[in-house]
Amino acid sequence: MKKYRNLLIDFAIILLFTVLLMFPYLLHSSLAIEHDTFFHVSRIAQYAEAIQQGQLLPAIYPLENGGYGYGSPLFYCDVFLFIPAVLHNIGMALVDTYKLTVFSAGITMYMLASKFTERSSIRLLAVAAYLFSNYHITDIYVRGALGEIFALIGIPLILSGLYEIFETNKKYTSSYFFGLVIMVLSHNLSFLLCFILVIIISILYLPKCSL
After folding, report:
1. With 0-12 CB in 10 A as exposed, 13-18 as middle and 19+ as buried, what is 29?
2. 75: which of 124, 131, 187, 211 is 20 to 30 A away, CA to CA?
């Protein structure tokens, strides 16, 4: 019982970290004009329109760019935008639906840290370092890089899965599978870089696997 209570406390602290991270967004009912803000906000708007027309996985958005259309779903999968698009269709402001997509990778990083230590303080320190890293903050508040924000959720899952495979000799791990799915569906370049990382880690473990 004490274990679950401590876990709930840790999750509450992670939620507090997330609130602190998103605090500038929570203060205003508008969005800053970042590098890719208009692009990703338009994805939600056009996906909401596609859902109204019964298209759950459209290949192009014919109404985007002043009616000239654009094939953004060919490059960015819109699966993770389904809930924001539905919320927009039932009346939520487009700006607010975008803010919901910029959620943190705190839970998955906590899962990864749990593989290495049982001390909550160290786990939470790892979560804070990951959430408030320059790269993550830049993705949110400078670049508006929604695909990479999603990808940062999958990376700790992949690393957790690799730890389970190589350190506990598991033949299959769901965290590795879901991490790969998130990476593939969120950001192709991040997936490629993570794939290279997986190869490097696998090579490093080859001597152990050959024993």
Report:
1. exposed
2. 131
| Each residue's pLDDT tens digit, 42-91 | 899 999 999 998 888 888 888 888 888 888 888 888 888 999 999 999 99
Q: pLDDT tens-digit profile of 159-208?
A: 999 998 888 877 778 899 999 999 998 888 899 999 999 999 989 888 87
Alpha-carbon separation of residue 94 from 24, 83, 183, 200 (angstroms): 17, 12, 25, 41
Nearest by Cα to 39 from 67, 76, 68, 74: 76
H helix intervals, 2-114: 2-21, 23-27, 37-52, 82-89, 94-101, 106-114
Distance CA 157, CA 162 (A): 9
**The dihedral sign for the CA sequence 120, 15, 179, 200:** negative
